[in-house]
Amino acid sequence: MQGFSAIYIIIDALDECPMLNNERKGLLHALRHILKAAPDSLHVLCTSRKEMDIEKAITPLLIESWGAEIDLSTQRKALDDDIGKYIDSILEDDEYDTWGNDFKEELRNALMEKADGMFQYVRCQFENLQKLSSMDAVRKALRDLPSGLDATYDRILWSIDEDFQPQVIASLKWLAFSVVPLEIDQLAEIFMLPSKSDDGFDSMPRLFLPRMY
Questions:
Q1: Which of 18, 118, 119, 206 is a good FRET partner for 72, with 20 to 30 A between their CA atoms?
Q2: Farthest-apart Cα atoms in the chain, separation
Q3: Residues contacting residue 53 through CB under 8 Å, at least 6 positions apart
Q4: Helix (H, G, I), strand (E, B) or coil at 8
Q5: pLDDT tens across 43-75, in order?
Q6: Is the confidence at residue 3, as pLDDT, over 80?
Q7: Which helix (H) or strand (E) holds 205?
Q8: Separation of alpha carbons 186 and 171, rounded Å
Q9: Where is each Nephrocystin 3-like N-terminal domain found (predicted)?
Q10: What is the DSSP track for 147-174?
Q11: Three-state DSSP class for 164?
Q12: CB count in 10 Å sphere of residue 125
């Protein structure tokens, strides 16, 4: 770190680090070690939902290092207002013209109740609702909204068609372990690589017209 006037480390969504195999415990331990030995030129920003193990590890460090905590839950009304505006902006799209104001209000209230301050939660639910073909189906989905982002991601993964699961798993592995960010066209190429060492190269599995949704 010598030779730099300022160094910034940003750890986003610390709570999404899995607890399995003590991965989160190891990360928190490393973070404590870094902060205790950090020079004045090092600045660290962590974002996270409130979880007991993270709060227990981070709070003493804030005191020792003169750090600051920004608790968005104390600004919950402003946050909920912003999420409400986000929902309204989506519902203004022509795609929802036939839904009617009363139904839109019903949907808005249901999402606001479950969002728990998370824009990503709302975005994921809209992606699911857009696939439904009737108000009855939407109402049923609203009655069965998942609790939190973890449950939302679980539902998304479990709903993937069985035929596409190998492709999804392969894509996630490449995204997780690639040393550089991958473009969608590059991901389309990976399916031509042999999945087993004795398989030959085959261009047939390459995706048609790869695109983001």
A1: 18
A2: 63
A3: 19, 24, 25, 28
A4: strand
A5: 889 999 888 999 998 888 887 767 788 887 788
A6: no
A7: none
A8: 10
A9: 5-49
A10: SHHHHHHHHHHHTS-GGGHHHHHHHHHH
A11: helix
A12: 21
